[in-house]
Specification:
about 200 residues, alpha/beta, 4 helices, 4-stranded mixed β-sheet, globular, single chain, D-amino Acid Aminotransferase, Chain A, domain 2
Length: about 200
């Protein structure tokens, strides 16, 4: 049985709001293992005293029926400016699997771009590691059927910052700006400069 993964940002040596991570973890364990008794992240994650409050860390929680491993590492963002449209109808990433072999195979098709923007049944989904949001000059939209619904995406939808829509490659000229969404990327205050360009 595949192991799953939750990736949490640790900023100022503090845990984030865990509700969306816990919800996704509970759902994965129920769907994959038939387990309904939750593993509480708040109890499992013990922050090391050695964390520098000035740095951002990535906390990786690997789990199956039980939590298998918890790791901390300094977070180094990877700049992404260009995205290559790639067909990924075959990809099964309904849960955040620890094994990213299938994602890596799609990522390898990026050519000279920084990352891929995956298409499923003609609709935009995600990049190799993030959901996407597109701005039409008035509102922000995110694909209604992502490969993997992310925790940051869930929060932005809950707060009314994002709306869902079916977005096709032909719709891209209708948008002025695209940005990536995941737990490690801060949404607030980031809207400066170019965003991502999509390569056909």
């Amino acid at each position: 049985m595949k192991s799953c993964l939750e990736t949490l940002p640790i900023r100022h040596a503090q845990l984030p709001d865990l509700r969306d991570y816990q919800t996704r973890m509970d759902y994965a364990r129920q769907q994959l293992y038939g387990l309904t008794e939750p593993l509480l992240l708040i109890d499992a994650i013990q922050l090391p005293n050695s964390l520098d409050p000035a740095l951002t860390y990535k906390c990786r929680v690997t789990y199956g029926a039980q939590i298998q491993k918890i790791e901390f590492e300094p977070y180094l963002p990877r700049p992404v400016h260009t995205l290559k449209l790639v067909q990924a109808n075959h990809l099964d990433y309904a849960h955040k699997y620890a094994d990213r072999t299938t994602i890596n195979h799609v990522f390898a098709q990026r050519g000279t771009a920084d990352d891929v923007l995956m298409l499923r049944n003609g609709l935009l989904t995600d990049t190799s590691y993030a959901n996407v949001a597109l701005y039409d000059g008035t509102s922000w939209y995110t694909p209604a059927l992502p490969m993997l619904p992310g925790t940051q995406r869930a929060r932005l939808l809950r707060e009314g910052i994002l709306q869902t829509a079916d977005i096709r490659p032909a719709d891209l000229p209708d948008f002025q700006y695209m940005r990536l969404i995941n737990a490690m990327l801060v949404w607030e205050g980031e809207l400066t400069g170019g965003g991502c360009t999509v390569i056909w």
